[in-house]
C-alpha cells in the first residue's frame, strides 16, 4: 500500500516533466536560436557555431531599440493607469459595497466573457474616423473633419489596452484589501487618525503587495502585445511584440526574432525583480 | 472644553464603526467605470442586429440575418468547436497538473519544493509573444506538426499558474488531520487524497478549471504561434479582422459565444451556492 512519502514522486513527477519539456527547455531554445549566426528560416538539423551576430544587429538597428523603449513606456503607462483606475473600484467593492459586493464584482467581470478581440474592435468603432466620438463632435458642430488622431495611433492603442486591463487589475487589489483586518483601522481611528491618515498609514501599505501584483498583471502582457497594436494602431502604432511576431511570420528570420524575444524577456524579468526589491515584500509581510 | 473633547472622541468612535466610509463618491466612480466597460459590448450587441456591412455609424436597419449566417457558416462553428476542445483540454490538464503541484508543495517538505512551485508560477511573468516563440522553437526542433493539440499544450503552460494558486490557497486552509484520519482507517495516501481531499476542495477545483478555460478560450497571442491548419475562434477572428470582411457575422458569433459563457458562469455560481 502506498504511504504518504511514497506518493510524493507521483505528485511531483508529472508537473515537473511537463514544465521541463514545455517551459524550461523552450526558454533555453530561445537562447540557442538567438546565438545562431545565420538569417532567415532555420533548419534545426544544420550544424552551427555560437555567435553574437544577432545581438549586434539588434543594437545596431535604432528602430528596434526605439520600439523596445516605446513598448516599455506604453506598458508602464498602461499598467500605472489601469492600476490607478482599478484601485478605487477594488476599494469600493471591499469597503463600500457590503452585501452587494459579490453582485458588483460579477458585473465587473462579465465583460471578460466577451471576446477580447471584439472588445478591441468596438473601441475602433468608438474612436474611428466614422466612429461615435467623431460623429458626436461633428453633429455638435465642433469639428468639420473627423479627428484622425483617434485611430491608427499609439493613443488609441493605449486607451484600448487600459480599458481591457482594468478588471484584471482590480482582482489582486481587491484580494489584498479584503485581507486587511478591520480592527487595524479601528485601532488607528481610536488613536486619532482621520480617514485620510488611516488610508495613507494603514490601508495603502497593507494593500501594496496586491497593488504591485495588479501593476505586473497588466505590465507583463502589455509589453509583449502585438495583437491590439495590429488591429487598432495600424503602422503608426506597432510595438516591439510586432517585430518578434513578424520575424517568426512573414519576415521569417528566426535567429533575429529569438534574440529580440530574449531581450524582451530579460527586460520583463529585470523589471519584476527591481520592483520586488524596491517594495521589499518580506518587510511588508512581517 | 472636556465636553467638546468627549464629543470629538465620540465622533471618532462613530467614524470608526463606519471604517472605510469616506466622502469620495466611489459608488459613482464604480457606476461610471461600469458604463465604460459595457459600452463597447453594448455597441457590438447593437451592431449584431444591424444591416450595416461595416462597423460605422449611422445604423441603417434591423435584421436577424447575421445570426442565421452564423448557423450557416461551418468554418465559424468549426472554429468555435475547436476553441471549446482546446479550452477543455487545457483546463483539464492545467487543473490536474496545478493540483499536483499544490498538493506536493502544501503537504510535503522536500528538496526542490521551492523550485517546483516557482516553475509552476513563473509562466505568469513571461509575455505571450516570448512564450509563443519558445514553444514554437520546441515544436520545430522536435519536428512536431502544429495543430490544435500544440495550442492546448501551450495553453496548459499559461493556465497552470492560475490553477496552482487557486488550489494552493484552498489546500492551505485544509486540516491535514483529515487525510491522517482516512489513513488510520486503512486508506492508502492516494486513496485518502481521492476520497477525502478532492471532494473537500471540489469548489476550488471547479473555479480553477473555469479560470483555466477562460484563459485558453479567449487567447490569441500565444495560439497564433502554435496553431496549425485548424484555427481556434480567436485565431480565426484575428485573421479575419486584420484582412477585413464579414465583421457583422463575426460579431454575431461572438455574441452567441458570450451568452453561452455567461450562462455557464451563472450556472457555476448557482451550483456553488446550492451544493
Keywords:
heterodimer, A: about 290 residues, mainly alpha, MetI-like fold, about 75% helix, B: about 280 residues, 2 domains, about 0% strand
Summarize this entry quickly:
Chain A is mainly α and 286 residues long. Chain A has 13 helices and no strands.
Task: Tell me about this structure.
Chain A has a single domain (52-285), classed as Orthogonal Bundle (MetI-like fold). Chain A contains 13 helices and no strands. Chain A has helices at 4-34, 53-60, 62-96, 101-109, 116-127, 132-139, 154-178, 182-190, 195-223, 227-233, 240-247, 254-279, 281-285. In chain A, helix 3 (62-96) runs antiparallel to helix 9 and helix 7 crosses helix 9. Chain A is globular and about 70 Å long. The two termini of chain A are 42 Å apart. The model of chain A has no long low-confidence stretch (mean pLDDT 82). With 275 residues, chain B is mainly α. Chain B has 2 domains: 26-63, no CATH class; 77-273, MetI-like fold. Helix content of chain B is 75%, strand content 0%. Chain B is built from 13 helices and no strands. Chain B has helices spanning 2-17, 26-47, 65-72, 74-107, 113-121, 128-142, 148-172, 177-184, 189-200, 202-217, 223-226, 233-243, 247-273. The chains are: A mainly alpha (286), B mainly alpha (275).
